[in-house]
Amino acid sequence: MISFVVRMRFSQEDREHVLDAVRRLAEASRQEPGCITYIPHEVAGDSGLLMIYEQYSDEAALEEHRRSEHFRRHAIGGLYQWMKERSVEDLIALA
Predict the structure, then answer these.
(1) φ, ψ dihedrals at 34, nearest 5°
(2) The whole model's pTM is what?
(3) What does residue 30 show for φ and ψ, rounded to 5 degrees?
């Protein structure tokens, strides 16, 4: 299983666009056969910082996600255009 967290910072003026894009991306991503979990979060106390917790069954499922039309439309064509900062933390499950 592959798990990671993506953190993205956005300007407040883009907030409505960002929330719409992340909701659409989450809805479509959760329908992918290899997607186990896809949960976007707003960080408490910092409405300009979003975090997405993602889990995929394997590397092939993650690659399929990144090649999907909804990823191209809502992530690359949407979120990536508005984000000011981005970081990814790969996770290792302990139990």
Answers:
(1) -95, 0
(2) 0.93
(3) -65, -20
